């Protein structure tokens, strides 16, 4: 069986045009990425207290958030990320290990049934509309997330690890490589970064890894870019509604 990399190499010019034409989201993703990169210049990793000061509220309620979230995340009922969003399928095909994902909010589009499962997070999200996306991520043992870039520079990505194996010597099972540098995240420590930088991830442990993923609207954007960002979010909300995402994103 040919690998995804081999399949990409086998595509002829016509297939590439079909995949990258203006009728496909990839075309507009690259145009949007170019616009943001011309105006926003920042390091790959930023201080959470600066870019997302409200994260301190999450840390203050960490024990309750962790307990409520792990009851759901470790139930074995989380939907597969690539089944919720077909655009994520290549991330599954890379190693055929299912990445579990429970959306709570997606670019401003709420998932009320999922939020109700974790009351402490539902309360936080109700008071923080600047957190435009939130999800529970379950990375299975041995899962490898191939190098890629996020599509939208109008947000910061925030990680809050809830269930991670500590290997000692500063290493953990929550391993990220961002812009050529390795980071090892630990339980209860928030981490803020720009996911439009090339990044990858791996879980080298024999247990799943559970992390909260938030996208926080960036307040350092110029006015014209803020308008573009809200248009992007509005389109994403409509798309999720049309695709009936709430039904696909519920517990299995």
Description:
It contains 12 helices and 13 strands. The protein is an alpha+beta fold and 252 residues long. The strands form 3 sheets. The chain has a 7-stranded antiparallel sheet with strand order 1-11-6-13-4-2-3. The protein is globular and about 45 Å long. The chain is 39% helix and 26% strand. The chain starts with a helix and ends with a helix. Residues 1-8 have low confidence and may be disordered.
Shape: globular
Distance between the termini: 30 Å
Order of helices and strands: HHHEHHHHHEEHHEEEEEEEEEEHH
Low-confidence stretches: 1-8
Structural class: alpha+beta
Largest sheet: 7 strands, antiparallel
Number of strands: 13
Architecture blueprint of SSEs:
Elements (H helix, E strand, L loop, with lengths): L3 H7 L2 H8 L4 H15 L5 E2 L1 H4 L3 H6 L1 H12 L7 H4 L4 H5 L6 E7 L2 E2 L1 H5 L2 H8 L4 E9 L4 E5 L6 E9 L2 E3 L2 E2 L1 E5 L2 E5 L5 E3 L5 E4 L6 E9 L5 H20 L2 H4 L4
What's this, in brief?
By secondary structure, the protein is of the alpha+beta class.
Task: List its salient traits.
252 residues, alpha+beta, 7-stranded antiparallel β-sheet, 13 strands
